[in-house]
Amino acid sequence: MRTTVKELLKGEKKNQEVTLKGWVRTFRAKRFIAINDGSTINNIQCVVDFENTDESLLKRITTGAAIHVNGTLIESQGKGQSVEIEVTSLEILGDSNPDEYPIQPKKHSFEFLRENAHLRVRTNTFSAVMRLRSALSFAVHKYFTENGFYNFHAPIITGSDAEGAGEMFGVTNLDLNNIPKTEENNIDYKQDFFGKETNLTVSGQLEAETYAMALGKVYTFGPTFRAENSNTTRHLAEFWMIEPEVAFNDLNDNMDLAEDFIQEVLRYVLEHCKDDLAFLDARLTKEESAKPMAQRSDMALIEKLEFVTKNNFKRVSYTEAIDILRNCKPNKKKKFQYIIEEWGADLQSEHERYLVEKHFKCPVILFDYPANIKAFYMRMNDDGKTVRAMDVLFPQIGEIVGGSQREERLDVLKEKMKALDVDEKELWWYLDTRKFGTAVHSGFGLGFERLVLFATGMSNIRDVIPYPRTPQNAEF
Ligand code: 4AD
Ligand code: MG
């Protein structure tokens, strides 16, 4: 029976006959094969009796080849590993031509690896990132399940634009070379597949609200699409979002939930992904050491994750934040790209990062934003100009969570929709939640890739999702 490298490295099978299948990472001195099978970041060393092995077979042990070895697990004779396999027989399952295989045992640039995204997971860095991503995903489901939430599958195809930003990808099966038109020369969506205009979802929130008003606590965790033309290290056109929605929670409860949730999933990976984190920690430290002193992060990766799990997030109102920003050095010296002049300004990531990295030096939850820079569904405060919105801001990332207490009053909600030109008729079902048994409720959205960015210490969001979709790029 096949065992895994992870299993073997535990050392419990010492002096036993073992069978392993995996891929060759390196082969040196005609003797030592380092094999990896994805079960762990670590390779196992397999020692070949080269004097009694065919030269033609040895030639086929090349980086990337799939291999099957049988042998005895023994205490390692050399340094660097506790156990190794003394090979009794080996078979090449799939050759890998060294003249053509792009992933050689040397440092490749992330740009090069993005062009080879189908092979990059065979490197240490990407396999560590993707195992961590998987563990974080499990931790998310574990957290909500253990806290009485139901997983709710929001539709992917919808007729609504929850965020009102107009950044949707249309979904149609009309013949684009021969689009049917109405008498007014508009596209005749009645003839389209769904008989109406539809798009890929930008958020499952509106549907999640309807479910929270019956199941109490729900969360979605699914693909989300935004046709925003932002070519940054933090934006994807297709990303995964986690959106809890809770009946009877107000904004303070919502902040408590966001903080507890993020801390708990990070604690999970700190405990369960030690090898991968140690590797990524060392990688980041090396990368940072190449930077000028002033740009270096003052914490290593694991230290940073522990800091976040052990310290409360600082809660600050938008109004307080604007005061801090207006009077801060980079604003006065015009170092910001966008200068903060007055109350009401939308915050850019440079401002968010200043607050988190320079001013408070810890994660920050900003709340009570101006109504006119936020979505229609957020609850209006008594001042008539701010809404019960919250954004969680993280070092290096900026906004990681956006959420709010929802406007539960039907009349106020309708007014707001009118003012923001949101079609009441389209959202009749959403308004029903305010007509029948309305109640205070709140929720938020966490961009999963931004969480993975933080947890892995990677710097580009394209490197924490298997196949990134960004403007002008949908290869693979
Ligand atoms: O702040 P956003 O737009 O909020 C919503 O969509 C709400 N409906 C959430 C809710 O209250 N249920 O997005 C939420 C989070 C952001 O904080 C960010 O982490 C992530 O989603 N996000 C993106 N991540 C990657 N690429 C993009 N283009 C993203 N846009 C948003
Ligand atoms: Mg937001």
Question: What would your notes on this structure say?
Answer:
The protein has 476 residues and is of the alpha+beta class. It folds into two domains: 5-101, OB fold (Dihydrolipoamide Acetyltransferase, E2P); 122-167 and 202-463, BirA Bifunctional Protein, domain 2, CATH 3.30.930.10. The protein is built from 14 helices and 17 strands. The protein has helices spanning 5-9, 55-59, 110-115, 124-146, 205-215, 251-272, 274-289, 301-310, 318-326, 329-332, 349-360, 410-419, 428-435, 448-456; strands at residues 2-3, 17-28, 32-36, 44-47, 66-75, 83-94, 150-151, 157-158, 170-171, 198-200, 217-225, 238-247, 314-317, 364-370, 386-394, 398-405, 441-447. The protein has an eight-stranded mixed sheet with strand order 7-11-12-17-16-15-14-13, with helices on both faces. A five-stranded mixed barrel has the order 2-3-4-6-5. It has a three-stranded antiparallel sheet with strand order 8-10-9, with no helix packed on it. A hairpin with a 7-residue loop joins strand 3 and strand 4 (44-47). Helix 4 crosses helix 14 (448-456). It is globular and about 85 Å long. The model has no long low-confidence stretch (mean pLDDT 96). The structure holds 4-amino-1,4-dioxobutan-2-aminium adenosine-5'-monophosphate (4AD) and magnesium ion (MG). Magnesium ion (MG) binds at residues 399, 402.
